[in-house]
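Hey there, shall we discuss this one?
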Amino acid sequence: MLGSVNRVLLAVVGLVLVALGGSVLAIGLGAPAPSWWLHHGRDDVLLDNAERTRWRDEGWWWPVVIAALAVLVLLCLWWLLAVLRRRRQAEILVDTGDGEGASLRGRALEHVFAEEASRQDGVADARVVLTGHRGSPRARVTLTLEPHVDPGTALHTLTTVALAHARTSSALPGLPTEARLQARKHGPERVA
């Protein structure tokens, strides 16, 4: 979800900047400006003296400008942190027992864990995401259950089969897991 929002926001900001920059460049090179455009010719400035000093003497102007800029800076910092923060584990450190260690791809463990969880009776779909640190990963599992399945039974089978196999195959002493169960919607049944 965050990746989609990030791409959409970047595309919108990029299109706006390209459109504004391209139009200013075109007018600066001599292209005729539309009547509704901010600038009307080659020698027109971005802000003239009247526009620059129009609101300066109003008491509300500077607090509004500072608050708007502060909100803009905070939004940009939030966006930057959201982009830089990695949500998924690229690799997991596995203790091989000989004092060395091995590296297991996080996506491979996610895939195998999800495949085994989706093979359970009554599970329509399973998604697994590994988070946390390389030495102590955490798992988030989303199970989509068929309408007739008991959630308690599905959760018990997940922990005793798929989760147990994921722990033993990756030689992890523990794999804290958050499971989210959701029901698959079914169509109306016909009554004869």
Observations:
- The mean pLDDT is 83.
- The chain is about 45% helix and 20% strand.
- Strands lie at 91-95, 101-105, 123-132, 137-145, 177-183.
- The CA atoms of residues 144 and 182 lie 5 Å apart.
